[in-house]
Design brief:
The protein has 187 residues and is an all-beta fold. A hairpin with a 2-residue loop joins β12 and β13. The protein has one domain (7-179): Immunoglobulin-like (Sandwich), CATH 2.60.40. The protein is built from no helices and 14 strands. The strands form two sheets. Strands 2, 5, 6, 7, 8, 9, 12, 13 and 14 form a nine-stranded antiparallel beta sheet that branches. The chain starts with 6 loop residues before the first strand and ends in an 8-residue tail after the last strand.
Length: 187
């Protein structure tokens, strides 16, 4: 059994003082990907969406939201997954850079669990890959992990890598992890 590896996300530009760290842990098992985000900061000053019934909702990135981008290695198409601490979610399918739309299919609903800690929160999302036409279990994937954190001072943008002057989670150069088929390690 492998040890969990937490990866630090980087804030685009200046980090708001109320956020100390934002980390993510990723694991692929069969037709599922589990992504765990861990936010550490001054929870009183971070705006966290109120819990509600799990449902599809677009534009979650306008508030505190955690995101995963999954592409098959060597292909321009990718999927974007948005997970809000409220329990809301959205999955988008893109043919290429920002060329796509949301998938309004409840059968694709990820399992989202949120746990509040004394200094932040952890969001755990489990995504089934077998519901996505462009992704199959044996393919190596390129992964982008990101978050938008809302505070009273505005939004901050976090990612594995920020390849441009402006925050752009859709930039394929930001898909900085390679996730091989089950049994292989993250690289």
């Amino acid at each position: 059994m492998s040890v969990e590896q937490w990866i630090d996300l980087q804030c685009h530009r200046a980090r708001p003082q109320m956020v100390r760290t934002l980390q993510v842990c990723l694991r692929r098992h069969g037709n599922e990907v589990r992504v765990r985000f861990r936010l550490d900061g001054d929870r009183r000053r971070i705006i966290i969406p109120v819990p509600c019934e799990p449902r599809i909702n677009t534009q979650l990135w306008r508030h505190t939201c955690f995101e995963a981008f999954i592409a098959i290695a060597g292909q321009a198409a990718y999927h974007e997954f948005n997970f809000a601490p409220s329990g809301e979610w959205c999955i988008y399918a893109f043919r290429g850079y920002r060329d796509g739309e949301p998938l309004a299919d409840e059968t694709m609903r990820p399992r989202i669990d949120v746990r509040f800690t004394g200094s932040g929160l952890e969001l755990d999302a489990l995504v089934r890959l077998d519901t996505l036409s462009a992704i199959h279990a044996a393919a190596p994937m390129r992964i982008g992990l990101a978050a938008v954190i809302e505070t009273a001072d505005g939004l901050s943008y976090w990612a594995l890598r920020h390849p441009a002057d402006r925050p752009d989670f859709h930039n394929a150069d930001g898909f900085a992890l390679r996730l091989d088929p089950p049994g292989a390690e993250i690289s």
